[in-house]
Amino acid sequence: VQLQASGGGLVQAGGSLKLSCEASGVTFSTYGMGWFHQAPGKEREFAAGISRTGGNTYNADSVKGRFTVSRDNAKNTVYLQMNSLKPEDTGVYYCFATLPGSNYWGQGTLVTVSS
């Protein structure tokens, strides 16, 4: 199982980025997907998640109204559109795939938001 995240980079506060995570080695449409955020020196925290069909999404309070998670099951890819970025959004973003009894993590992509 591989989860390949991309799209991170350096952006000014107030800017936008779109992260992508392409999965291979799994039946993508059977997995819930999402993103965790690990700020420098802090623990990894849930950011956003999406159900298998995309019908339900979940967001941490810190990103509500700014981040949107989506998926394209035909492309085995989950996305995180990040708008109105803040310096505290800086960190590594990890995509994950989850199914009862099975959890997988991607390698992470670094987002740096300058003030």
Q: In a nutshell, what does this entry contain?
A:
This protein is mainly β. It contains no helices and eleven strands. 0% of the residues lie in helices and 57% in strands.
Descriptive notes:
- By secondary structure, this protein is mainly beta.
- It contains no helices and eleven strands.
- It has strands at 2-6, 9-12, 17-24, 32-38, 44-50, 57-59, 67-72, 77-82, 91-99, 102-105, 109-114.
- The strands form two sheets. Strands 2, 4, 5, 6, 9, 10 and 11 form a seven-stranded mixed sheet that branches.
- The N and C termini lie far apart (37 Å).
- The mean pLDDT is 96.
Keywords:
115 residues; 0% helix; globular
Radius of gyration: 13 Å
Q: In total, how many beta strands? A: 11
Beta-strand share of residues: over 45%
Through-space gap between termini: 37 Å
Oligomeric grouping of the chains: single chain
* Low-pLDDT runs: none
Which secondary-structure class do the elements indicate? mainly beta
Mean pLDDT: 96
Largest sheet: 7 strands, mixed
* H/E element order: EEEEEEEEEEE
Percent of residues in helices comes to: under 10%
**Separate helix tally:** 0
Shape: globular
Topology diagram in text:
Elements: E1 2-6, E2 9-12, E3 17-24, E4 32-38, E5 44-50, E6 57-59, E7 67-72, E8 77-82, E9 91-99, E10 102-105, E11 109-114
Parallel strand pairs: 2-11
Antiparallel strand pairs: 1-3, 3-8, 4-5, 4-9, 5-6, 7-8, 9-10, 9-11
